[in-house]
């Protein structure tokens, strides 16, 4: 394959305040997929990621934990890198802002900007947000709080160095107008222009004296260089930029960056501050900045206080690596925020990965083994239905490439899944098992199976950028390596008379939603900060745990009547019970007893309900309690108390 040139992309470096949740991890998975696709295309691709480690917040956290700031960030940086590696990312470099290759050059950059008059000393007085490490004016606050994170701000005044942002503002506006593709999506560009650039830029505070955990200003060491001039310059220091012009070959080869992939919350810093810093250093600007949306959990922003934080390793334990990658890439819109729920991930695994992809590969390989001992040749006994399949397969590459170039990764992945869906339809149209019954149609059957293997081969070669582990498994079953990208716009790439594996592997097993939701509850309890005692009690729920009378007294057991009951369509094991418990308010409970009871067996009966159990959503039904039943070996028997009055307390 011909080298198509260099391609340099970066993530935002992760702040070392704690373990990154799945919303943070999305960015590295997205960037990794872009990098892998560019490598697949034939670009000499370089992916940079890393950690942002200085600042007041980390100094405070280190003090709270009784360690030095360096010890604190060392531990968090290692955890971040572990999470990046866990999700299978192929970064070329992991830069830490505490490394000398970065900090030494940042000092030189600061001195250069000061010497040329872009930085001056003054005093800053304003409203300061410690978590965001940002000053704001009164008018910039939202409901009196930080406009970025919503937390409290405090008045602050200190001596500081400032960067003359207004000196370069007009030049930046002109650049954005002349390069409409510079900021993506367009909505982010409009926000930056209308809310910040056009109203006029204030000079930017670029040093602090109220804390010491940072890169010192070498000619005024009571100052440390403030977060954005420190953090943003990682994109050039990691590549060997030298303020005196003695740049490394790596920097000469790859700068300017093709794209900075960042979250929408830091677009302002990357599209205003960073380009202006580069202008002051007389360096070309990055070609594009893509501000991706956020990944929400149950339609809310993830936070520990809400108890809705989920981590990559937890999701991978339940669903597997490529299932998690698939969900992140397939479900995140281009502009608007995405949403993660346990039900939706399960649905995607079962429908897209297990049914559409996994079943397609498994039955194609199985039929090849069954009918031709694993070897098929393209006999070219064609019918019109073949032409439609081949047209979709040969057009897929360019459609995917077009979407990738627009950073619409979800659409790119959908194009590949559409190819696999068309293959499944082709099986239904050609009925290979029917062809196998007629010896005279053997050549037609071989042609059909070859077309399927060829289509899977081409689709998997494209898929390898997004689900690399799955792609390798499919290649192993087809007994091939990835096809050359330049040829992926044509069919007939699968080697003629090649032998598939005689032991096809199940790529994705179907998941039981109830089992997934049970694991989700355990994870939610752990991440919400429940005590070790409570977690242990959950694990010992079958009666081993010892509790005192006070614990038992906290459980509200009461008699309730089943006034309605129906199956839950999305879960074959669950019944939805509507209960009257004497409070005057109907209560809904989802119970896993459908195997042993029909709805009509329960309506009108009186049962015992745990009335103060925390509600949980199961398959779209909010379950507001739990009914008592006895586990009698292979049988489950609901405890009926028909002779007691509704609302009676069980003590």
Describe the 3D structure:
It is built from 22 helices and 26 strands. With 651 residues, it is α/β, with parallel strands linked by helices. Among the domains are: 341-487, Isoleucyl-tRNA Synthetase, Domain 1 (Orthogonal Bundle), CATH 1.10.730; 547-650, OB fold (Dihydrolipoamide Acetyltransferase, E2P) (Beta Barrel), CATH 2.40.50. Strand 2, helix 1 and strand 3 (44-52) form a beta-alpha-beta unit. It is flat, with a radius of gyration of 30 Å. Mean pLDDT is 92; it is low at 530-545.
Q: Can you tell me the CATH topology of one domain?
A: Isoleucyl-tRNA Synthetase, Domain 1
- Quaternary structure type: single chain
Parts with pLDDT < 50 across at least 5 consecutive residues: 530-545
Query: Which percent band covers the strand fraction?
Result: 15-25%
CATH class of one domain: Mainly Alpha
Number of strands: 26
Helix content: 40-55%
The dominant shape is: flat
Query: How far apart are the first and last residues' alpha carbons, in Å?
Result: 76 Å
Structural class: alpha/beta
């Amino acid at each position: 394959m011909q080298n198509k040139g260099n391609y340099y992309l970066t993530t935002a470096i992760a702040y070392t305040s704690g373990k990154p949740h799945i919303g943070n991890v999305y960015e590295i998975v997205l960037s990794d997929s872009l990098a892998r696709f560019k490598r697949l295309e034939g670009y000499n691709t370089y992916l940079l990621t890393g950690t942002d480690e200085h600042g007041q917040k980390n100094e405070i956290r280190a003090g709270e934990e009784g360690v030095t700031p360096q010890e604190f960030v060392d531990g968090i940086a290692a955890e971040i890198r572990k999470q990046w590696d866990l999700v299978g990312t192929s970064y070329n470099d992991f830069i830490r802002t505490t490394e000398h290759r970065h900090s030494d050059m940042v000092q030189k950059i600061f001195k250069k900007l000061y010497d040329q008059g872009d930085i001056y000393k003054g005093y800053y007085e304003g409203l300061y947000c410690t978590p965001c490490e940002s000053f704001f004016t009164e008018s910039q606050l939202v409901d009196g709080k930080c406009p970025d994170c919503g937390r409290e701000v405090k008045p602050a005044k200190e001596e500081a160095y400032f960067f003359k942002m207004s000196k370069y503002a007009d030049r930046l506006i002109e650049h954005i107008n002349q390069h409409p593709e510079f900021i993506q999506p367009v909505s982010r560009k409009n926000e930056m222009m209308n809310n910040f650039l056009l109203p006029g830029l204030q000079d930017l505070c670029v040093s602090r004296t109220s804390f010491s955990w940072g890169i010192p200003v070498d000619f005024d060491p009571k100052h440390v260089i403030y977060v954005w001039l420190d953090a943003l310059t990682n994109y050039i220091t990691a590549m060997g930029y030298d303020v005196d012009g003695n740049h490394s070959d790596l920097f000469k080869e790859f700068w300017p960056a093709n794209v900075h992939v960042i979250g929408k919350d830091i677009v302002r810093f990357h599209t205003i501050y960073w380009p202006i810093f580069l202008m002051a250093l007389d360096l070309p600007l990055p070609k594009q900045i893509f501000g991706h949306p956020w990944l929400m959990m149950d339609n809310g922003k993830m936070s520990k206080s809400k108890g809705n934080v989920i981590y990559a390793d937890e999701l991978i334990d339940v669903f597997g690596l490529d299932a998690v990658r698939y969900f992140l890439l397939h479900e995140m819109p281009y502009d608007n925020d995405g949403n993660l729920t346990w039900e939706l991930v399960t649905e995607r695994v079962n429908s897209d990965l297990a049914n559409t992809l996994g079943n397609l590969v498994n039955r194609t390989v199985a039929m090849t083994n069954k009918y031709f001992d694993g070897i098929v040749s393209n006999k070219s006994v064609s019918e019109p239905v073949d032409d439609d399949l081949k047209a979709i397969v040969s057009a897929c590459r360019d459609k995917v490439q077009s979407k990738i170039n627009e950073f619409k990764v979800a659409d790119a992945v959908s194009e590949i899944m559409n190819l696999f869906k068309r293959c499944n339809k082709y099986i239904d149209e050609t009925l290979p098992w029917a062809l196998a019954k007629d010896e005279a149609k053997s050549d037609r059957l071989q042609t059909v199976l070859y077309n399927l293997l060829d289509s899977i081969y081409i689709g998997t070669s494209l898929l390898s950028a997004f689900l690399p582990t799955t792609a390798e498994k499919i290649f192993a079953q087809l007994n091939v390596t990835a096809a050359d990208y330049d040829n992926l716009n044509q069919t007939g790439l699968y080697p003629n008379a090649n032998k598939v594996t005689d032991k096809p592997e199940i790529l994705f097993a179907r998941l039981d939603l109830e089992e997934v939701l049970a694991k989700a509850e355990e994870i939610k309890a752990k991440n919400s900060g429940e005590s070790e005692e409570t977690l242990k009690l959950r694990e010992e729920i079958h009666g081993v745990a010892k509790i005192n009378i006070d614990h038992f007294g906290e459980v509200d057991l009461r008699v309730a009547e089943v006034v309605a009951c129906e199956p839950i369509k999305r879960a074959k094991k669950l019944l939805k019970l509507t209960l009257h418990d004497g409070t005057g308010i109907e209560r809904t409970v989802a119970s896993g007893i459908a195997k042993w009871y029909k709805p009509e067996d329960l309506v009108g009966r009186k049962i015992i309900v745990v009335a103060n159990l925390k509600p949980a959503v199961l398959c779209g039904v909010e379950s507001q309690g739990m009914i008592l039943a006895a586990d009698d070996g292979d049988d489950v028997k609901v405890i009926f108390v028909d002779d007691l009055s509704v609302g009676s307390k069980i003590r």
